[in-house]
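Q&A log
Question type: sequence-to-structure
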Amino acid sequence: MTLWREHFSCFSRDALLATDYMRILGIDPGTRITGYGIIDVEGNRLRHVDNGIIKTRSSDALPLRLKVIYDGLTSVLKMFSPEAVAIEQVFMAKNPRAALTLGHARGTAVISAVNLNLEVHEYSALQVKSAVVGYGHAGKQQVQHMVKALLNLPEVAQEDASDALAVAICHANSRTLKQAVSNSSRRQ
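Response status: OK
Response body:
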């Protein structure tokens, strides 16, 4: 297993005393490279905790590659203890075999979180791009630069890790919107 991490700033949970706090793990699944990104949400503030990739060897059989992804994500989950996991939904690929293989990686990522009793939230690529850039058809570079700006990163994260951070940001924004709607409903 190859687990690459970029570590810019880490905030201990004890240091964050706000009641509106959550740690979110975003996952960008892939059988060759699975990206992950962890953020802390305190009120309307986002803080980068960690991001990286889990690489598999393309020469390995698919079951072995899925094990590498499972073990890597389980390690990340245990190390950072997020309260929620967000993952991108499978898109309709032109190549059915590629979509099926991606589905295996995605299922492996979901199981790694569910086995630790974590909630898994799913978002489409359109939802992620809209939440991060404000435009659902934004390009990858636009998303990467907005992730860098929103999380105050010193440099653009690796592509798959940046995508995972974007999914985590999407969940943070979605969570905030759901709370606002819920609070509004209670007042009426």
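Response note: The chain has one domain: 2-187.
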